[in-house]
Amino acid sequence: MISLNINGKQIETDAEPDTPLLWVLRDYLGMTGSKYGCGKALCGACTVHIDGAPTRSCVLPVSAVAQAKIMTIEAIGATKEGEAVQNAWVAEGVPQCGYCQSGQVMSAVALLSSNTRPSDADIDSAMAGNICRCATYVRIRAAIKRAAESLA
Known about the structure:
Elements: E1 2-6, E2 9-13, H1 21-28, E3 47-50, E4 53-56, E5 69-71, H2 73-76, H3 80-91, H4 101-114, H5 120-127, H6 137-151
Parallel strand pairs: 1-5
Antiparallel strand pairs: 1-2, 3-4, 3-5
């Protein structure tokens, strides 16, 4: 059994130690908010926070995070930054297909948790690893700016 701290709760799983965290979240624990995109940590759809840092869960063995604090999209709205980002996402009409959005939100929240006044360059850098097939990048940037303003 592997014990994990997910969204502030201790959860045990019988997953093999080399099972990617994404599959533990989705298949073992029924937490389907984080998505499978590329399986190579290139697209960002699987992004979760590990000890506050945005991390691609599709290539991360579950055994590597047994001592870490894991936060998923399912709980991000309970943080002030998460709530601000989610509200801004709605206000700016960011999602189209929505597939990448949990990863986008997780990366945006991580940015605003450390920088409440991000420049365009800061936003571009923080969001560079997240791909949106619908190309809503302009609305994503506007939503991050709106969220930052609400946090200021």
